[in-house]
Write a structure and sequence with these properties.
By secondary structure, this protein is of the alpha/beta class. It contains eleven helices and twelve strands. Helices cover about 35% and strands about 30% of the residues. The longest helix has 11 residues. The N and C termini lie close together (about 10 Å).
């Protein structure tokens, strides 16, 4: 199972939000590239980066911070936030991002996802964030009437490498993840699922690891990692163990 340390960017800083609220941001680093290098030294194999300003505004905002990270580390990066057209997908993949995450675009323009998968095989993931069971978009500011499973099934067999699933109510709240819904999603689709939101202890990682065979490919680690409630060495040792 792959562990993805998260670097969420707001105004050029590395932050964590509480339940997606931009007004409730805790700053963890003024130098995101330095934070990325720290994660690389810890032994992580991927980075998960979100341009929070970009997600709200509909276009990339923290470009300088992302490029600084790409320059500083050799880890593959998956990037989301404000990427909503083919030009931006092409731009970021050309800049060195390994995988682009489409969230709002996946709901509003599913044909873009399919075409992107065709043009950039193995480099497109879909982010599905839910609030009270419904898909939320535009930086979680808007809630649709679509549920996660129905949206995920639209992208079966088109080449999406992963569904990144987040329960917004758990994100940054340190109350534990919504394992039941995440696993239920994974069991209903063939695309691998990366769990996000609320992972607050090593026990949460252990529980997700039990469902690798159900399609849980990885976990995104945020606040608990920054606050030391999850130790990188222990988490990585656990994730690399055979099932």
């Amino acid at each position: 199972m792959i562990l993805y340390p998260a670097i969420d960017l707001k105004d050029g800083k590395c932050v964590r939000l509480f339940q997606g609220d931009m007004e409730k941001a805790t700053v963890f680093s003024l130098d995101p590239a330095d934070q990325a290098a720290h994660f690389e030294r810890d032994g992580f194999q991927w980075l998960h980066i979100v341009d929070l300003n970009g997600a709200f505004q509909g276009h990339p905002v923290n470009e300088a911070a992302v490029k600084a990270i790409l320059t500083r580390v050799k880890l593959p990066v998956q990037l989301g936030g404000g990427i909503r057209d083919m030009g931006m997908i092409d731009y970021w993949l050309g800049a060195g991002v390994a995988r682009v995450i489409l969230g709002t675009a996946a709901l509003r323009n599913p044909l873009l996802v399919k075409e992107a998968c065709r043009l950039f095989p193995g480099q497109i993931a879909v982010g599905i964030d839910t609030k009270d069971g419904k898909v939320a978009v535009s930086g979680w500011a808007e809630v649709s009437d679509k549920n996660a499973v129905d949206l995920a099934k639209k992208f079966e067999d088109v080449g999406v490498v992963a569904i990144i699933y987040t329960d917004i109510s758990r994100d940054g709240a340190m109350q534990g993840p919504n394992i039941e819904e995440t696993v239920a999603l994974a069991e209903q689709i063939s695309t691998p699922v990366i769990a996000s939101g609320g992972i607050s202890s090593i026990e949460d990682i252990k529980r997700y690891k039990e469902f690798e065979a159900s399609g849980i490919e990885g976990c995104i680690l945020g606040r608990a990692l920054y606050e030391g409630k999850i130790r990188a060495e222990e988490a990585l040792k656990l994730s690399s163990r055979g099932s």
